[in-house]
Amino acid sequence: MYSRAPVDRSADSDGSAGDDRPGLGCSHGEPPDWRVQLREGLRSAADLRRLPLAPEELEALAEVTAAYKTRAPRHYLRLVDWSDPEDPIRRQVIPAPEELVVAPGERPDPIGDRRHSPVPRLTHRYPDRVLLYPTYQCAVYCRFCFRKESLVEVDEGYSPRALRPAYDYVAAHPELREVILTGGDPMMLRDDHLAEIRRRLEAMPQLRMLRLHTRVPVALPQRVTPGLVAALRGRLMVAVVTHFNHPREITPEAAVACRRLREGGFMLLNQSVLLRGINDDAEVLRELFQELVYTLGAKPYYLHHCDLTRGLSHLRTPLERGQRLVDDLRGRISGLCQPTYVLDLPGGEGKVAVGVSAVEEHEGTRWILRGRDGRRHEYDEVLPDAADDR
Ligand code: SF4
Question: What's domain 1-98+106-356's superfamily in CATH?
């Protein structure tokens, strides 16, 4: 069973981890400045040589690091247990030769971002919301990322000119309500650039919400400064969707970052990806989902089945196993702590819930439902006669 030292919930500053694990960086505690965190982290594949990796392992990584980006802030590297080659943090951030093995059925654009992209830097898949890509750069390059090929192909940062067609597209669509900044990681932008994007969007009266999808609170929580929070505050409701995958990512520094976001008045949600050997374990998921709520105040929103991204078969779990894991949590943890298990249909047809349904049979108003006790229960609907019209 997985266990972890409890998070110090009293952390109220930028936090200091205190210890100094093997890896990169200076010899004192956790630097509070996020730029230092980046500078003292893994900035490129060349820096892998400064990590405690065996020479033969480094040699085996040459090809994969030429194909995909490699980066991790010092904070995230310090979470790795270097004595364990299967460490769940290490496997999310250190490249693996298996990433070059493409299995039949895997795709370069697994969820159809490009197919649903009417203008550069924007995807329009659902009627009332769009994805906007203000940058293709991230604080950490996650080995499981479903956009890892786009991040290599485009590799551009923020540019108001490059975003102009996307703004024009949003302005011309009165049915839109939400713009989702994703990436790349939008929290890697400068505060003034985030404020500029927020102002451009809030000038469009049909929009109600600005959403950010980010790994920054996980990998570089020091970036969540009062200035960043101020840059995002305005007319639009703001939701920050974090991306914690493992309970060991829930650090005192992450707790400070999430509290800042909540105190800024933002909704806090989390999406995780189910990853083989990293979090495909009932106890790991239980702890992750509970600590998200009880320590970070972040509602687990989606548990994603790993997409058909090329080179990820070594991280993919069978769908049936995912269903069993999620079903196991039903009734054991609060409904607040339970995400919806979803799969993005290949090609861009959108998300579908893939958890086990409690409905076993249904005829007319008579339903057979499976209860928490594992037994079948009958439920007869009692409706007004007019309900037949619905
Ligand atoms: S931060 Fe997000 S976009 Fe960037 S590599 Fe990780 S999962 Fe992909």
Answer: Aldolase class I (3.20.20.70)
| Beta bridge partners of residue 340, listed in sequence order | 302
pLDDT of residue 34 exceeding 60, the answer is yes
Site to substitute for ligand 1 among 91, 94, 182, 185, most atoms within 8 A of C-beta? 185
pLDDT band at 183 (very low <50, low <70, confident <90, very high): confident
Which listed residue (69, 91, 125, 198) is catalytic? 125
The DSSP bridge partners found for residue 342 are: 304, 353
Any catalytic annotation for residue 344?
A: yes
The alpha carbon of 359 and the centre of ligand 1 are apart by a number of angstroms equal to: 36
Alpha carbon distance 82, 79 (integer Å): 9
**pLDDT digits over 333-357, tens only?**
999 999 999 999 998 889 999 999 9
Q: How far is CA 16 from CA 31, 40, 55, 341, 380, in A?
A: 7, 15, 32, 35, 57
Q: Specify the ligand 1 atom closest to the Cα of 146.
A: 8
The alpha carbon of 290 and the centre of ligand 1 are apart by a number of angstroms equal to 23
What's the pLDDT at 314? 97
pLDDT surpassing 70 at residue 15: no
Q: Is 126 a catalytic residue?
A: yes
- How many whole angstroms from 329 Cα to the centroid of ligand 1? 27
Question: Could you tell me where in the chain the CATH 3.20.20.70 domains are found?
Answer: 1-98+106-356
Query: Are the beta carbons of 83 and 21 closer than 8 angstroms?
Result: no
pLDDT tens digits along 238-255: 999 999 999 999 999 999
